[in-house]
Predict the 3D structure of the following.
Amino acid sequence: MERGNQTGIPEFLLLGLSDWAEQRQLLFLLFLWMYLLGVLGSLLIVLAIGSDPHLHTPMYFFLTNLSLADVCLLSTTVPKMLVNIQTHSKSITYAGCLAQMYFFILFVSLDNFLLTGMAYDRYVAICHPLNYTTIMSPWLCVLMVAGSWSVSILLALIHTLLVVPLSFCADDEIHHFFCELNQVLKLSCTDTLINDTAVLILAVVLCVVPFAGLLFSYSRIVSTILRIPSARGRGKAFSTCGSHLSVVCLFYGTGFGVYFSPTSTHSSQKGSKASVMYTVVTPMLNPFLYSLRNKDMKWALKKVFSRKLLFT
C-alpha cells in the first residue's frame, strides 16, 4: 500500500484479536458490554458530580474531565472493532486510521496528565491541608486542565502529521484491533527515523514526566500519612487518595506491561490482546473504582437514582 504522490489501496486491514469465526460473536458481546459499562459508568460519574454541589471541588473537577476522556477513549477504538466484527470486515480507511490514531494519542495523553494533576491535588490536600483552598484555586485547576488538553492535542497532532508524508508498502495488515502508531510505522516503505524519534519523545512526555510527578506526590503523601500518630487518622488520610491510587496502578501497570514488558511483541496478536487492558478494561473500571471506594460518590449516585425514581 502506498501513499504520498503514489497511488495504492486506500485502506488498512485491522487483524483484530482473533481469526477464529467461533470467537467473533463472543468478542462482540464481551466488548459491547465493556463499552456500555464504561460509557454509562463514566457518564453517571459526571452526572453525579454535576448534580451535587458538595462535589464541586478540585478533585472532582479533575475526575469529571477524566471520565469524559475515558468515554472518548473507549469510543475511539471499540465501536470500529464492533462494526468490523459484525460486518465480517477488517478494513479501515486511510483517513479513518489517521483519525483513530490522532484521537487515541490525544485521550491517552490526556488521561496521563489528568491523573498527575489529581495526584498533585491529593498531595496538597494531605500535606498542606490548611493552604489547600488557596493553592488549589479554581483558576489553577482550570489552567491545569486546559494545559493538559493543549499539550495532548499538540502531541497527537504532531504524530499524526508526521505519518501523512509516509508511503506504505503492499503489506497493509495491522496486527492490532485499532490503528496503533507503532504498528502503522512498521508498514511504511520510507524512512521513519523522524517518527521513531518523535515516539521516544512521546514516551518521555507521557511516561517519564507524569510518572515522576506521581512518584513525587505519593512519596510525600505516604511520608506525611506515616507521621500521623493515630491509626484512625492514617486510615482516613489514606482513604482520600485510595481510589485515585487504584486507578493510577491499573493505568500505568497495564500500560507498562504492554510497552515495556520483554515478553510483549507488538507485531503479534499477543501484544494486541495485552493492550486491551489499558485501552478498554482500564477506562471501563475507572468509574467503578471511584464510586465503590468513595463514600461521597456513593452518596451522590444514590441521590441521582432516587431523583430518577421520584420522576418515574
Observations:
- The CA atoms of residues 39 and 127 lie 34 Å apart.
- DSSP finds ten helices and three strands in the chain.
